[in-house]
Design brief:
FAD/NAD(P)-binding domain, 2 domains, 11 strands, six-stranded antiparallel β-sheet, alpha+beta, three-stranded antiparallel β-sheet
């Protein structure tokens, strides 16, 4: 970073964090699902099955080289409106005017670029806490991001204008027992899909040019983090970055972890009213971030709204009574 750079520094008290780490979330959810249901891994969905009457009746999953149809009276998709409507539904459904209209308020969001760092030192040695830190190069975010996204791919890695820094090991009270003398850090920022598009169909983990490019971002972000947490550098053990993992691992359209962009148009009252769980395909429902809002809380509420829609019953009342 150039001398004389100025930054806005924001600290937050942090969000809730699962005791035992993020793995505890699927661990507990899977036990509930498998009480009568089944959880499949390494079985990506390739299409949603729709009959001649325009009703969904299951999905096709990939198992090795084999395509397997799984039938169901109700299909719920949480992979976002773009992947659901533009990739999983049959083409003749995709081109229907009512389906296109449902997509009209949405734009694809930017890619979330993530850096993961590990340290051979405990929390106290590094001077870190559970507090989330957000760094901005100015307080005019609109101009900041407009200028950043106008850059070419060569200049972008050393001109990142904002990032989020978090220390999961400091948030999790079990981390000290599970990984004594170790700490970890996450850095999040956003990038343009076009900067990484050349690698979208390739095994990116094996490509030196992709590795070199993404590490330009990672090193810049880590250096920036060290300006606020100076004890990190001497104890760094591993620095790893991911870019297109949201597209390859989550099935996110163009790698957008937040799915649809969270702009003013999306949150216009009329467009919000159109963002329903039920869609113009019978027996098919949407859950996740594109139903309610972004992030973990958005997904939770998206699931509750979807469950209420499918069951014809307001499950929020059930939760209130359980509490």
């Amino acid at each position: 970073m150039a001398d004389g750079d100025t930054y806005c520094y924001v600290k937050s008290s942090g969000a809730c964090y699962p005791k035992g780490g993020a793995r505890e979330i699927p661990y507990h959810i899977i036990r509930v699902i498998e009480n009568g249901g089944k959880v499949l891994v390494k079985a990506p969905v390739s299409q949603i099955l729709v009959n001649n009457n325009g009703a969904a009746y299951g999905v096709t999953v990939q198992r090795g080289s084999e395509q397997i149809n799984i039938k169901a009276p109700v299909v719920i998709s949480s992979v976002g409106v773009f992947t659901t409507f533009q990739e999983l539904l049959p083409y003749e459904i995709q081109v229907k005017s009512e389906v296109k209209e449902r997509l009209s308020p949405f734009k694809i969001g930017k890619i979330s670029f993530q850096v993961f760092a590990g340290f051979n030192a405990a929390q106290e040695e590094l001077g870190i806490t559970s507090t989330n830190t957000l760094l901005f190069k100015s307080n005019d975010l609109d101009d900041l991001l407009e200028e950043y996204f106008s850059l070419n791919k060569d200049k972008a890695p050393v001109n990142v204008p904002m990032m989020f820094v978090s220390f999961p090991s400091a948030k999790d009270p079990t981390s000290k027992d599970r990984f004594p003398g170790k700490s970890c850090m996450e850095i999040h920022t956003i990038v343009r899909y076009e900067w990484f598009a050349q690698w979208k169909e390739l095994p990116v983990e094996t490509l030196a040019d992709h590795e070199n490019y993404k590490m330009r971002f990672a090193n810049y972000l880590f250096d920036w983090a060290c300006s606020y947490f100076p004890k990190l550098r001497a104890k760094l053990a591993v620095l790893h970055a991911v870019s297109l993992v949201n597209m390859h691992g989550l099935g996110a359209k163009d790698g957008s972890m937040m799915s649809a962009e969270h702009n003013l148009e999306r949150y216009h009252p009329l467009n919000m009213a159109k963002s329903r769980c039920s869609i113009p395909v019978k027996n098919l429902y949407l859950s996740g971030q594109d139903v309610f809002s972004a992030g973990y809380s958005g997904v939770l509420h998206g699931g509750l709204i979807c469950a209420s829609t499918v069951l014809g019953h307001v499950v929020y009342i059930d939760l209130f009574l359980l509490a």
